[in-house]
Amino acid sequence: MKLNGLSVDQAPPIAAPLRFFLTAPLFGIIAGILILLSNSHTLMSRYSVDAIIVTHAITIGVFAFVMFGALTQMLPVLAGAKIDRVKGITFFSYLMLTSGLLAMIIGLKFSIEVLTTYAYIGIGSGFLTMVIAIVYAMRNVNNFTATIKGMLASLLFAFFIGCMGIFLLYEYATNSISQYHYLIADIHSVWAIFGFAGLLIIGVAFQVLPMFYVAPKFKQFCKKRVVLLISSGLLIWLFLNQFYEQYELVAKIWIALFFWAFATTVWLKFNKRKRPISDVTVWYWRASSIFLTLGSFLWIFDEFFKHEYIVMVGILIGGGFILSIMIGMLYKILPFLVWFHLNAMGYMKIPTINEMIDKGLAKVQFTLLMLSLIGFIFAFYIPQLLAVSAIYFIISMALLEYNILGPLFIYRATKKKKPDFDMSVFNMEGVK
Amino acid sequence: MSSIKEYLTNDHRKCDEIFAKMEEEAGSSLESARTLAQEFVTDMQHHFAMEEQVMFPEFEKKTGMTQGPTEMMRQEHAQMRSLLLQLMSAIDEKNSDRFFGTSETLMILLQQHNMKEEQMLYPMAQQHLSAESDRIVSTMDSLIVE
Predict the structure, then answer these.
(1) pLDDT by residue (tens digit) across A218-248?
(2) Which terminus of chain A has fewer CB atoms gathered within 10 Å of its CB, N or C?
(3) Is B19–A343 a contact, with Cβ atoms under 8 angstroms apart?
């Protein structure tokens, strides 16, 4: 049995996950600016260049960055596995993803071929390196819990969407849009949202909800079957979409129902949690349940309206469900990460987790994000709302950056002092 | 009789529940949470003692691993003991922010510690000590912490 998760050097260097976490809101700001510079008519078309770059600034720049950071950090704890050469691999991947994504945004926006070419090399290598490194690290896991199965399934989808993404961007770069382009783009987006992000969130929720909120555990059926059922739903959807398009809806209903069931389960688990503390992370989980429910139903509804509402589905599920959970997780993980690393160095008098992030500002950030998401949805009917919603979104992302930089400043300031090794732990008289 | 894994895992859940009650009570007033906080600290101490005085030495004797997983778990116990002290001082100082900040930190540390034990160390211990499982559980159960 591998003992990586229990060894003294279990945790990756703090910079490895932090780099990803701290960059994510910056891409959120870029996405907001891109929305501000665009207009609702263009963004309503999912294949417009503006829609593609905004989507990827968020899905890669925010979602994938947070997920890769979290996986780097949580792998030793959840799976007892450690990425080999974690420092070098995460740095390389970060560099390639950041430069590649910036190149994609500028290259597609201003039709600069050399940048778009660099983009598929950069994003492709950065993304696949991380996915392969994490899957490889999981090779020796003995105890395959529901969470690890969810992670693995999610990473397999990530591998395929990465390959498809490279192909799609290659076609843009070479200006050779093939007949398969839109079909692959469709699979790429559905698998990215429900396969990569969706399954990872579900897998992690199995562990995180009972852990952080002392919520009731998920039922064995959920833990044993849901990941498999959704994964097979996504494969069946691919098959029907390709060969029997008239039955595609059946697979969509299958997938949407499980996600809706997940959203409802999360909501009920929070109602029954034994730890009644309500903070902004609980608000984010609650919001994500509502958005996911609406998004799942609209995804089915959209089928009867010639995909007129697909962008709205994207806002509800991408912005409302995935982004909400990502931010909620950031607020939990980041302060703990700083506390954990400082404590391990021997610093005992460290600000507590709650003192590292201003709760009031976190709530303002949450409110602004919710307002912006609702505004984006209604901009469908009232185009004038787009600009003000984009501004809310930009401020919300800037506030998020400020909020998560707080723990980093504390980390730096504390490290300048000498560690105050606390010997009181050897004498527990004080707590009796 | 339950296995080592089941017995210690159930004890984790028991501590979680007292922790949740303590936090809920502290929401109304810190002073009224004092009794539950003391109960939580006592239960945590008892859990640490069952592992450090009974299960870990048995595991180390059987496997010869004295500097491995058990040592790491001892270090994390020390981190948690420090937070337990801070939790009680926050009640003494009537500092609600510090109390909830410490309880949040403790909760996350505790949960990731539990996860490592439940998913890695306990299954290993059960595997190596299955023949002596009943005796070890019974010794842990009757352990009195001074």
Answers:
(1) 888 888 899 999 999 999 999 998 888 888 8
(2) C
(3) no
